[in-house]
Amino acid sequence: MYYHETKMRFLGLLVFLLGFKSAVLAQSSGWNQFLGPDRSGISQETGLLAKWPTDGLEIAWRVNGGVGMSAVAVAKGRAITMWNSARGQEVAALSLKDGTLLWTTAVAANYENSMGDGPRATPTIAGQQVFAYTGEGILACLDVATGKQQWSKSIVREMSGRPAEYGMACSPLVVDDMVIVTAGGQGKAVVALDRKSGDIRWTAVNGLPGYSSPALLELCGESHVVAFTAMGVTGLRPSDGKPLWSYPFPTPYDCNTATPIEVGGNVFISAGENHGCVMLGVTKQAAAYTVDEVWASVDVKSVMRNEWQTSILLEGYLYGFDNVGSAGPVTHLTCIEAATGKVAWTKTRFGKGNLIAADGKIWITTMKGELVLVAATPEGYSEIGRQKIFSKTRQNVSIADGYALVRDDSHVICIKVK
Q: Is the CB of residue 91 less than 8 Å from the CB of residue 142?
């Protein structure tokens, strides 16, 4: 009886908060940062393709790019990403209309790594500024119209941190007049800087940075910066970085990579390397916060082991990639009930890829270069369409203004999906 009542309260709260969140997001547009306007991986675009065209998807434009793992941020008629070039790690702005190269700005030397070359993080567009984080941990602020550099900080070096083994992958998070990234170091794993000057505003959390990007989540009626670093997840007060709560979640090779997401006032985290996932309940009494496990599914039989992809929450269900083994080749596409962790369905051996949600459907990019459209339903896997469009990529599509943008190591591709 207690379990049933707890589940029903959770579901009721979830429905209420999702409705509230949808109302807020309806005011948002574009895809201005990693995982979209609120880092949930959910686009607010509507009227998109309900089925695959018989003659295939229409490519609006395809332009040359460079090597890198950044996704594409879209705002103000610009599509902005990062890549290695003859000039170093560049931030590049393209016209959303036709792919014309508007400007490029080199912000560091080329980044090279055994796990793949090029910058990892996705730029963030905020107002008239673009924030870009390089593979070695240099944070640059540029003018969105011209690409002119306003300031640059070697954050990892200045914090006496150690770069992540496979490169700094944190996409900058803008909160009010600050920009927040991970860096690593004693009390400096998370760093907030002044947007205008680049001056350090606060630092928090011990240890190595991991590969996750922080998110701004609403918990207990308040905003929390939630950072998933190498050793676990921490909720921070945005104004001064004060740690409010934490939960240890060390993963082999420091591979905490997926972004934390809010689920009905709770926090969902997941990691690969056969680690698993947990739904955390964050509560507050007086000035103190408490963290409890709503449910947990860890080790080799976990229901969800996100290797680098962040799961998507839709109508009480989480859709995501479950990777088997230590970064092994077997990856399932899975749907689980958010309230309980119960598996709704699994498409076994789907393969590695990434995903977002838009217009009630799941939009998937595969490592084979396919764009796959799947119905977002807990009733079972239902594929709507599949087409080979690009080369190998780890990044999700970015959907804005009726277009889906994706890049590989050679091109940036814009697809008509309205």
A: yes
d(CA 108, CA 113): 15
Q: Which residue has the tokens 């119960």?
A: 342
Residue-wise pLDDT tens digits, 271-305: 999 999 999 999 999 889 999 999 999 998 999 99
The sheet with strand 276-285 has its strands ordered as 261-263, 266-271, 276-285, 288-298
Check pLDDT > 60 for residue 16: no
Please name each of the domains of the chain with its CATH number: 2-416 (2.140.10.10)
Say how far apart CA 355 and CA 353 lie, in whole Å: 7
Confidence of residue 327 (pLDDT cuts 50, 70, 90): confident
Helix (H, G, I), strand (E, B) or coil at 2: helix
Contact 404, 47 (CB under 8 A): no
Pairing of strands 149-154, 288-298: unpaired
* Mean residue pLDDT across the chain: 92
> What number is the average pLDDT over the span 136-160?
97
| SS3 (DSSP) at 341 | coil
On whether the CB atoms of residues 93 and 79 are closer than 8 A, the answer is: yes
Longest Cα–Cα distance in the chain:
65
387: left (phi over 0), alpha (psi -120 to 50) or beta: beta
For tokens 């700094």, the residue is: 168
Beta pairing partners, 151 = 141
The pTM of the whole model exceeds 0.85: yes
Burial code (b: 16+ CB inside 10 Å, e: under 16) for 161-187 equals bebbebbbbbbbbbbeebbbbbbbbee
Pairing of strands 243-248, 232-236: antiparallel
Residue 417 corresponds to which tokens in the numbers above?
A: 């999906």
Q: Which residue, 100, 90, 77, 84, is CA-closest to 30?
A: 77
Going by their DSSP bridges, the two strands 312-314 and 288-298 should be labelled as unpaired
Residue 64: strand pairing partners: 411
Report pLDDT for 29: 57
Lowest-confidence segment of 22-36, 110-124, 287-301, 304-318 by average pLDDT: 22-36
Residue with tokens 């240099």: 138
Q: What is the pLDDT of residue 328?
A: 80
CB 257 within 8 A of CB 271: yes
